[in-house]
Amino acid sequence: MSTPLSQALATLRRRYGDAVIQSGDTLSRTGSVWPTGLPTLDFRLTAGGLPLGRLSLLAASPPPGASGRLTLLQALSAAASRERTAVYLDLAGSLDPGFLADLGADLEALLVVRPPSGRWGEGLSMARSLVVAGAPWLAVALPPVAPGRDPGWEHRLTGLVEAVSARQAVCLVAAAAPVPPALGYAASLTLGCEAAGWQEAHGDVVGLRTRLTVLASKVGAPGEAATLLLRYPRPFATAHVVGWPAVVDLTAVVERAPSQIAAAAG
């Protein structure tokens, strides 16, 4: 039987989308996460992993240049592809399938979406369609975005966020600086990415140290920071991501006695 309340709910959902009004049992599932397998991410920067049903953001810190955001996005996409079907929306046009293979991706389970160059608003719509159809894991690599470049992108972003929420999917977006305000508002978790120096061995660059900082979070407390080492592929070695430093946690050095630090570093 139709009541004034049910009619009001139907009107609001038609106008603003199903995600704006949810029942209590749906909200109770918003604490679910996808563990990344990286202890630094899962147990220090997030509450167990990337949240399901929400948009997470890897935001490059200015100035322009290497930040590690795309390498980390690809590493997590590779990990997801080993468990489930994963979608990689390559709006930045920088995806290297060979690097994904080095990261151990299941290339048959990883769907790469590349819309026509410059039409990334349409790419967001394509990603939404795949999430609605049941794709459980979505990565979006955004190019630098000039203000006002695509007047229709905010509406398409809203549609994607609604689909991710309704399907309880993982959605991870990597964006260059400056991050569009609408993207920042839509994200439930924003991790700032800043290069912390190249990692070298025997005179060769073997990786990039990236400092991650929780800039904003609706699923935990912001302000925590840690560093990851993004190791590049080398002969007879695969690419991978580890916490850095592997033995000594620099943020905890001030809390430990010098003798303890020397023992750990040795």
Give the C-level CATH assignment: Alpha Beta
Rg result:
20 Å
Q: Remind me, CATH topology?
A: Rossmann fold
Largest sheet: 9 strands, mixed
**What's the CATH architecture?**
3-Layer(aba) Sandwich
End-to-end distance? 73 Å
Q: Care to count the β-strands? A: 11
Mean pLDDT: 81
What topology emerges from the helices and strands here?
Layout (H helix, E strand, L loop, with lengths): L3 H13 L7 H4 L5 E2 L4 H7 L4 E2 L2 E7 L8 H13 L4 E5 L6 H6 L7 E4 L6 H13 L4 E5 L11 H15 L2 E6 L5 H6 E15 L2 E14 L7 E7 L8 E5 L13 H8 L1
Parallel strand pairs: 3-7, 3-8, 4-5, 4-6, 6-7
Antiparallel strand pairs: 1-2, 8-9, 9-10, 10-11
Helix pairs in contact: 6-7
Report on this structure.
The protein is an alpha/beta fold. The chain has a single domain (about 15-265), classed as P-loop containing nucleotide triphosphate hydrolases (Rossmann fold). Helix content is about 30%, strand content about 25%. It contains 9 helices and 11 strands. It has helices at about 5-15, 25, 40-45, 70-80, 95-100, 120-130, 155-165, 180-185, 260-265; strands at about 35, 50, 55-60, 85-90, 110-115, 135-140, 170-175, 185-200, 205-215, 225-230, 240-245. The chain has a 9-stranded mixed β-sheet, with helices on both faces. It has a two-stranded antiparallel sheet with strand order 1-2. β10 (about 225-230) and β11 form a beta hairpin. α6 packs parallel to α7 (about 155-165). The termini are far apart. Mean pLDDT is about 80; it is low at about 25-30 and about 245-265.
